[in-house]
Design a protein that fits this description.
By secondary structure, this protein is an alpha+beta fold. The protein has helices at 15-26, 56-60, 95-101, 126-131, 177-188, and strands spanning 3-9, 31-33, 42-49, 64-72, 74-76, 85-88, 107-111, 120-121, 124-125, 141-152, 164-171, 192-202, 205-206.
């Protein structure tokens, strides 16, 4: 069997877990994926099966689209809900504030990766160093945000302030949505972290064409 297999990854599994499950189900060892999703994240994971593993390098560089949710007023060690809360601030953010900061994150920007990332630092993964309590200086990297929509979640109609944001973003390969959430929070002056993430498109493929593992 050779080809591409589109999977709707469930939350709580690593991308490697999905590959391992597919290897068992298909009884094929030669399977890879074209773009990691964090365990918390769900959505489109492109698997390359058999001779199609040669396509993974090509597919890794394609643009991707995500939807997600950001919680304002709290920073975490991992920049998402899986980390420990390291700071709380009063979030007095209005919809007008969201409209004001959004343009700064569209286009070619420099983004500092999260401390908990798979980036190599002197031969060691950054997340392994972070787990040992070591803070490493990760240099900013150029990424491109093609489209970004920030929509306030209105849970208390009487309140003028926003505490959660729904996000939709189309970005270049290599962009961290966790880092984007963190930086949006800093631009708003209250801190933030990512609480949900779903990949809905990767290159020419969309979630509508994906299968569940079941």
């Amino acid at each position: 069997m050779d080809g591409l297999l589109l999977i709707d990854k469930p939350g709580g599994m690593t991308s490697h877990d999905v590959v391992a499950r597919a290897r068992r189900l298909l009884r094929i060892r030669q399977i890879g994926h074209a773009g990691t999703l964090d365990p918390m994240a769900t959505g489109l994971l492109t698997l390359c099966v058999g001779h199609a593993v040669r396509l993974s390098e090509y597919l890794l560089g394609k643009d991707k689209t995500y939807t997600g949710r950001i919680k304002l007023g709290e920073r975490t060690s991992t920049d998402d809900a899986e980390g420990e809360i390291i700071e709380r601030r009063d979030a007095r953010v209005t919809p007008e504030d969201l409209a004001r900061v959004t343009p700064a994150f569209i286009g070619d920007i420099l983004q500092t990766p999260p401390q908990y990332s798979a980036i190599q630092v002197q031969g060691r993964r950054a997340y392994k160093l972070a787990r040992q309590g070591e803070q490493v200086a990760l240099p900013p990297r150029p990424v491109t945000i093609h489209e970004l929509t920030l929509t306030p979640v209105i849970e208390q109609p009487a309140s003028p302030f926003v505490h959660e944001i729904e996000l939709r973003v189309t970005c270049s390969a290599g962009a961290y949505i966790r880092a984007l959430a963190r930086d949006i929070g800093e631009a708003l002056g209250c801190g933030a972290h990512l609480t949900a993430l779903r990949r809905v498109r990767s290159g020419p493929f969309t979630l509508a064409d994906a299968l569940t593992l079941e």
